[in-house]
Design a protein that fits this description.
Distance between the termini of chain B: 69 Å
Order of helices and strands of chain B: HHEEEHEHEHEEH
Helix content of chain A: 10-25%
Oligomer: heterodimer
Number of strands of chain A: 13
Largest sheet of chain A: 5 strands, antiparallel
Shape of chain A: elongated
Radius of gyration of chain B: 23 Å
Number of helices of chain A: 2
Largest sheet of chain B: 5 strands, mixed
Strand order of the largest sheet of chain A: 5-8-2-1-13
Number of helices of chain B: 6
Chain lengths: 183, 182
């Protein structure tokens, strides 16, 4: 009959023997987990272009519109493919200053600037009037990091130009999210 | 049992529980992935083989002329960097396995001038059909629900769709297809 000290050392020995197996199992598990959620996994779920690059805008005053692009995580827009125009007769978009993008060294297109997360652009409109309903169109093109690109896309919003001295208009989504949990 | 020996043992038991949970989770996820995925597109190649589009020189080409070959139909565009990236591999595969029955066909969501220019640039050795934006709608009807590029459909020699893929095709996938069907 082993003494208590010897029994303890036997138990410890058994624990030591089990430890490598547990460690190996844990490693296999973690490796599978990394493979499962890691990059390079084929057939990932991709967003439709309007959800990957969500366009919205609001009228700041009777002659200025603020255009926004919310770019989903893992997606990017090309700066040189971004264009804004007015879809209302006689109204035109003046000179637009696009913010600097992140420079990407593309194997084929050379140095290109891209936007991620959020882009905000001020659009000076010409020939607008307070209270007028104006449609603003945004042409954009972007890709997802997983290695797919979306064709050039046009999204538009229709805004009511505010009265002089009045508050800015509300932010209007070109493609409102389909699922709304509130309101 | 005294305090010193019970503490490490309960800690290691706790660690073991967490590790087992992680292993179980990972095995579960892995097993889930091994389940057959529902095919995003149809298994019937009929609608695709019925398509006829002009090539870069303006001559109409029907996809049905390549029936019986291992046909890789690749939707692409010159404005799509990942498309341009994978095409040199297609050129090499066409050269290596064309005689055995592999046939690539590109359908460009683009115009003929840009397609011809890029085809010359990479020495394209398979037909490049001009689909314009309509090709995007065609690819949607074939399973490209988000309408992004590249999108590739492979039709086996017996006429069934054997691969529908959004995103670049890997060399290993091509090798597997060649090994399985040619």
């Amino acid at each position: 009959m082993p003494k208590p000290a010897a029994a303890e050392s036997l138990r410890r020995g058994a624990r030591r023997a089990r430890a490598p197996v547990a460690r190996l199992l844990a490693l296999v598990g973690l490796a599978l987990l990394v493979l499962e959620i890691g990059p390079g996994h084929a057939q990932v779920k991709l967003l439709p272009t309007e959800e990957a690059f969500r366009f919205s805008a609001r009228a700041l005053d009777a002659r200025t519109v603020e255009a926004n692009f919310a770019v989903a995580d893992g997606y990017y827009l090309y700066r040189d493919k971004l264009r804004f125009s007015a879809g209302t007769p006689a109204v035109t978009v003046g000179t637009v200053e696009l913010p600097a993008g992140k420079v990407k060294d593309d194997q084929f297109f050379g140095k290109v600037e891209t936007y991620r997360d959020r882009v905000v652009v001020r659009l000076p409109l010409e020939n607008t009037a307070a209270g007028q309903s104006v449609t603003v169109r945004a042409d954009s093109q972007g890709c997802a990091d997983v290695g797919v690109c979306y064709p050039p896309n046009v999204q538009s919003v229709t805004l009511t130009m505010p009265q002089p001295g009045g508050p800015s208009g509300p932010l209007i989504d070109a493609n409102p999210p389909k699922k709304r949990w509130f309101n | 049992m005294n305090q010193e020996s019970s503490r490490p043992s309960s800690r290691s038991r706790w660690v073991a529980y967490v590790l087992s949970a992680l292993v179980a989770l990972a095995l579960g996820l892995y097993a889930f992935r091994l389940l057959p995925e529902p095919a995003p597109g149809s298994r019937d190649s009929g609608p695709l083989l019925a398509v006829s589009l002009p090539d870069a020189d303006g001559h109409p080409q029907s996809l049905s002329q390549w029936r019986g070959r291992l046909l890789v139909v690749n939707f692409w565009a010159t404005w799509c960097a990942p498309c341009r990236e994978e095409m040199p591999m297609f050129v090499r595969a066409q050269a290596a396995y064309g005689a055995k029955g592999l046939q690539f066909v590109g359908i460009a969501v683009d115009d003929a001038v840009k397609v011809r220019q890029f085809a010359n640039e990479i020495g394209l050795n398979y037909p490049a059909l001009i689909g314009g934006y309509g090709a995007m709608e065609l690819s949607k009807s074939l399973g490209n629900s988000v309408m992004a590029l590249p999108f590739t459909i492979v039709i086996g020699p017996k006429g069934d769709v054997v691969l529908t893929q959004l995103g670049p095709v890997r060399a290993a996938q091509l090798e597997r297809l060649v090994a399985d069907f040619l």
